């Protein structure tokens, strides 16, 4: 007769295939859990700082504090926006959207602006900029002159008329002359004092002031043409474009300089980023 | 947060760069150096010069401009006016060939500045559903969004979520501040203004509202067509504003797109019969009408003026938003309105249509595209490239029928807000289709035929006669003769020469209105035919391979002391001057030449640019 001892009973259980299956099953679940930890929830933080930000924005836009109901609504909107935008990003919905791309570019642009903003210009840099770019800061040329106008429609023998007129004008003293008695009536005026280049061109047409530059002062000129006809000019004053003193236009130079610096830094930053990309142009098949 | 405040600081700095530093005190010292001494006898106190300006331009603050991708700002508009280059939706920089003397930026009061706010990150408005469609950069979406907002105006059903009043006030202040920044008395005038965009059932009743004052001297909020689309209620608002010491005037435009509703002859907008109160309110508030701009000219129509060989000028006669529809001409053109006004005076004792004229562009690109050889379109991506302009249709109107028009001409003592506004209020203004032609028009009883040979004739004209825009009093007529009209035009020095000077007369004869166009001065020494009142053809032509014109024909100046051979002291009449340039290339031809395209067949290759004066009215005692 075979009598089962306790030991035998344990061994029997331990060798039971069902137990093996159960243990293997549990092991599988444990291993699975270990390899794939349970999906954690993403966190959307509603901090006092965020609430304050939302409130500030509202105040700025609407000129008053938001009510409790409005604030709740805004927070809810924020949460909804976070959920949807994160999901959208996870689904890569932002990849081929031109508006999103442009907006991102705009944001980076602002950031680059911020970076270049941090650097203040010092006096010696400004002075150097002023010297090297003096053309940007020069004032316009100034002109003072009188003129006699010849309307080409009113004279059959234009050249002779102009020649005779010039001889007459050159013969006498200019200062005491009644200039308006010579030539044809010109409604825009006959005497001009310290007019800038653009002011003269506004009255006589484009390019007229430029043709005054080469004239000699205090003598009657050869006929100068405008869109209106011919003019005999008696220049009394001419000032070439002038560079004002650095101290007088300090602020203007500063603005120019900062703008230029900003552009340069942004370009530099872009070039550095560009280095990280290789452009492959794919040919047509 | 820190980045944002730095960003705001940055933006303020950028804004400061554009702020103009000249103050009124500087004007005093500069004034003596900046005005040419005109050869005028000093015994006269009136001495006025011609100033050219733009009174109708839009920026990104206007809903429709923004929708069509325009991002040019208020500052950009003023900088363009002063001759600087600005960005265009095409990506190119655009620039005028020369500055203008004054500008009123007139963004739509409806939804003013709302769209730029929607595009701003985290703006509460960006949560509004319609908002995102409105700022799309795709043309189809933009067209659809424009249609939505436009419909809200056609049907007078405001989109409430886009209308918060605190925001409107802020945006209006932005407009006022920009005008202040760029105002340089004596050098460049900015006028505060906006557009009242009334368009009931697609019929255009738009007006530009212009204020005389600046910051602190204009109302807190503009009166938009969402407040009311009825002109009579706009006039009530303006009367109120004026009563508070703030002078203001309104300038209607695009009567040609009003389907005849702009100049009614029977009833007002409520269907009430017109009366003297209506006429007074209209004349008091609307001294001027804009008769030439990008969306067509509205001096007259060939159907209304069959005997005017030049009536078919830049006619755009559709209805906005309704493609392939033609609007009514009666009630849509200035000359007809003047005649109807005379007829109403005769029949009912009041004349609502005694307005002067100006031109403007209505550009929505913050630009002034009034030159044929530099036409850069009207509204953003709709017509910013030659391709878009050639084939595009916007709001039901065909882009290639649009004009590179116009400018406002004003006779004033000085280029300041007071000078320019007062000239408009007294109607001493003229319209041009773009060139800077100067036009003078006076009438009086006692002028000799030789008066215009005197060098100071304008001063004499002011002293002994009335200027354009005025009524000629009958009292001075001791001899029962025709008044003498002193008419003078000078070409734009950068444009083609002048071809002919005309008088347009309208009168009432036996209860019937009549009109006539009379050539009064010809170029090249010719005289008008005494029977037909027409100058001979001066042979002017355009070389269509390069748009060059010769200066052999045409004159620099045309002038005439003219008396009306058919004047009847018992008949009411109006007279205004019109002057025509020699032909030049139209902008469509410039585009075609630059692109190597064939010329279009449904628009003319050449154009005769012109200027029109405000009328002078005669009423028998």
Write a structural description.
The complex is a heterodimer of chains A (285) and B (621). Chain A has ten helices and four strands. Chain A has 285 residues and is an alpha+beta fold. Among the domains of chain A are: 50-95; 107-135 and 246-266, no CATH class; 139-239, Chitinase A, domain 3 (Roll), CATH 3.10.50.40. Chain A has a four-stranded antiparallel beta sheet with strand order 2-1-4-3. In chain A, helix 5 (98-117) crosses helix 10 (250-274). The radius of gyration of chain A is 43 Å and the shape is rod-shaped. The N and C termini of chain A lie far apart (91 Å). In chain B, helix 4 (74-81) packs parallel to helix 8 and helix 9 (231-243) crosses helix 10. Chain B has two domains: 49-431, no CATH class; 438-618, no CATH class. In chain B, a hairpin with a 2-residue loop joins strand 19 (498-509) and strand 20 (512-522). Residues 1-44 of chain B have low confidence and may be disordered. Chain B is of the alpha+beta class and 621 residues long. At the A-B interface, helix 3, helix 5, strand 2, helix 9 and helix 10 of A face helix 1 of B.
Tell me the Rg of chain A in angstroms: 43 Å
Helix content of chain B: 25-40%
How many domains in all of chain B? 2
User: Which structural class do you get from the secondary structure elements of chain A?
Assistant: alpha+beta
Features:
heterodimer, A: 285 residues, Chitinase A, domain 3, 4-stranded antiparallel beta sheet, 10 helices, 4 strands, B: 621 residues, alpha+beta, 2 domains, 15 helices, 28 strands, 25% helix, 21% strand, disordered N terminus
Topology of this protein?
The complex is a heterodimer of chains A (285) and B (621).
Chain A: H1 6-14, H2 17-35, H3 48-62, H4 68-90, H5 98-117, H6 123-132, H7 134-137, E1 142-150, H8 158-171, E2 191-196, H9 197-204, E3 224-226, E4 229-239, H10 250-274
Antiparallel strand pairs in A: 1-2, 1-4, 3-4
Helix pairs in contact in A: 5-10
Chain B: H1 2-18, H2 24-34, E1 49-57, H3 63-67, H4 74-81, E2 86-87, E3 93-94, E4 102-105, H5 114-119, H6 129-134, H7 139-154, H8 165-182, E5 189-196, E6 207-211, H9 231-243, E7 248-252, H10 276-285, E8 288-293, E9 296-297, H11 334-348, E10 356-359, H12 386-391, E11 393-394, E12 397-398, E13 407-412, H13 417-425, E14 429-432, E15 438-444, H14 457-464, E16 466-467, E17 471-472, E18 484-490, E19 498-509, E20 512-522, E21 542-543, E22 548-549, E23 557-563, E24 573-581, E25 584-585, H15 587-595, E26 606-607, E27 610-613, E28 616-618
Parallel strand pairs in B: 1-4, 4-5, 8-10, 17-28
Antiparallel strand pairs in B: 1-13, 2-3, 5-6, 6-7, 8-9, 11-12, 13-14, 14-27, 15-16, 15-18, 18-23, 19-20, 19-24, 21-22, 24-27, 24-28, 25-26
Helix pairs in contact in B: 4-8, 9-10
